[in-house]
Amino acid sequence: MSAIDDAGRRLRARRRRRDYLLFAAFAAPNFLFLLLFAYWPVVYNGYLSLTDWDMISPAKDFVGLGNYTDLLTDPDFRATLWTTVVFVVGIVAGGLVLGLATALLLNQRLRGRDVVRTLTFAPYVLSGAAVGTLWLFVFDPNYGLIRPLMAPLGLTAPAMMTDSKWALTGLVLVYLWKNIGFVAVVYLAGLQGLPREVYEAAALDGAGPWTRLRRITLPLLSPVTFFLLVTCTISTFQAFDVLAVMTGGGPGTSTSTLSWFIYDQGFRAFDAGRSAAGAMIMFVVLLLITAGQARYLERKVHYQ
Amino acid sequence: MTALDPAAPTRRPGGRARRLGLYALLVLVALIAAGPLYWLASSALKTNPQIYAYPPHWVPTDLRWSNFSDAWNAAPFDRFFLNSLVVSVVGTAIELCAALLCAYAFVFLPFPGKKWLFLFLLGAMMVPGHVTLLPNFLTIAQLGWVNTWAGLIAPGLGSVFGTFLLRQHMLTLPKEVMDAARIDGAGHLRTLFRVVLPMSRPMVITVAIVVMVTKWNDFIWPLIVTSSADMRTLPVGLLFLRDQETYANWGAILAGTVMVILPVLVVFFIAQRYIIAGLTQGAGK
């Protein structure tokens, strides 16, 4: 009796060991890639941010927190942070408002709305480098689309991307054009999941459309808004391709965001320490935003 | 009733003006989205005098296809296409295989501390690409892979998004089917490819297309890791073309831009269901 039990147990143990090994073998490639190209870089970037190094000389000088204190007391870097805030707020807030408006429109029973939905989403999947090139041409004050569009209004097209007063606005507009379809489609999915009965009840109570939007639609959509707020903020902080193609941080430093700064310091000025410190600052900011999201979601679960 | 009301009934007395207004808005949205793309496509077929004319030619009259050959001759576009194709196809194939195996392991195989390992995997999503730029460049340089296909592909191979979506989908597969496969004596690899893969086809297609488009469009990594024109991918090559041609020859630059955009646009219009589903995953969860 017990001999058979023993044999069974040994067999099960052997099978379990074999399954563990198989798990390890199946999961290993992906984990290896992530360890090597995502986790290790965080550690190594953290170390680089504590050094002064030109990426050529064999020795990296350890400077402690020197890069961080340098950056945070440097008025140019503060300007970069401010530019980043304007850039991110403009794109995220503008994207949410215009995306929601588009979604509300596409949620009406109109013929052709599916085609329009597809058209608005298309720019989101296109290469940022190509989109940037395309918009450089659209914004060209002499030959671009902007001139015939502004002429009937009696306006002369500004030199959008070569005038430091306008370049940041121009970039925000292009990123809005690229992202709105994404926001709209996510909001649209949220709108289509809203319970109709609430609206019928509100209509019976005599609530007007504005009241219903403010008191019912927006509160019910708040989880979607929150999701969009976090994902768009994270991706906009890192936005690089359109910016690199259209302005390269210029004219002057008028469009130099943190994302551009990290690239510029690392791969053009070859100042690894400053670049790495800038990247760590971005990392911490994004972590805080994500942690904020986690706390919010937790509250929602508890109080619902 | 206004456009701002999602539950507005569509039939109302006096609703005609409102509907007309809504259609006007719909046309406006369509024009804003597609207008710049039409401007690009039409201008890429104009002669230079037409491009630099004002008032503009809204419809190009004698189509100048040679803008495309100009672009092709000014920059090694054949190499750009080849590099982009290799990077997106090979990269996607490797990433997808790794993601499939990994997702399968998490769903169908036991391992101590599996839940924690999965959290660890998801954690990689928190790492912004910009934090990895310098270290990955140094790693690739150490491996001697700067300016090679391997160097272009390797850092993008880890999959969190794809593994997550595939795992979520595999969790919904009926357990009985797996058990039947096991009783038939199928090994895990066989089960994965003969049972799980066919049952997860829409999700696999979604992940494959989204990953491939992302790699095709990637800009900052190819910009950093390539150093000669013949190793550039299309988006970086476009920048190279612009520097070659300057703005005196917009025709060629715009033709080059069309060549970068067109493949993705075609894939998007064919597979938009998968792409939109994949890119908007996670919303409302």
TrEMBL record, chain B:
<feature type="transmembrane region" description="Helical">
    <location>
        <begin position="85"/>
        <end position="109"/>
    </location>
</feature>
<keyword id="KW-1003">Cell membrane</keyword>
<feature type="transmembrane region" description="Helical">
    <location>
        <begin position="144"/>
        <end position="166"/>
    </location>
</feature>
<keyword id="KW-0812">Transmembrane</keyword>
<dbReference type="GO" id="GO:0005886">
    <property type="term" value="C:plasma membrane"/>
</dbReference>
<dbReference type="InterPro" id="IPR000515">
    <property type="entry name" value="MetI-like"/>
</dbReference>
<protein>
    <submittedName>
        <fullName>Binding-protein-dependent transport system inner membrane protein</fullName>
    </submittedName>
</protein>
<comment type="similarity">
    <text>Belongs to the binding-protein-dependent transport system permease family.</text>
</comment>
<feature type="transmembrane region" description="Helical">
    <location>
        <begin position="192"/>
        <end position="213"/>
    </location>
</feature>
<dbReference type="Pfam" id="PF00528">
    <property type="entry name" value="BPD_transp_1"/>
</dbReference>
<feature type="transmembrane region" description="Helical">
    <location>
        <begin position="116"/>
        <end position="138"/>
    </location>
</feature>
<keyword id="KW-0813">Transport</keyword>
<dbReference type="GO" id="GO:0055085">
    <property type="term" value="P:transmembrane transport"/>
</dbReference>
<feature type="transmembrane region" description="Helical">
    <location>
        <begin position="253"/>
        <end position="276"/>
    </location>
</feature>
<feature type="transmembrane region" description="Helical">
    <location>
        <begin position="20"/>
        <end position="41"/>
    </location>
</feature>
<keyword id="KW-1133">Transmembrane helix</keyword>
<keyword id="KW-0472">Membrane</keyword>
<dbReference type="InterPro" id="IPR035906">
    <property type="entry name" value="MetI-like_sf"/>
</dbReference>
<feature type="domain" description="ABC transmembrane type-1">
    <location>
        <begin position="81"/>
        <end position="271"/>
    </location>
</feature>
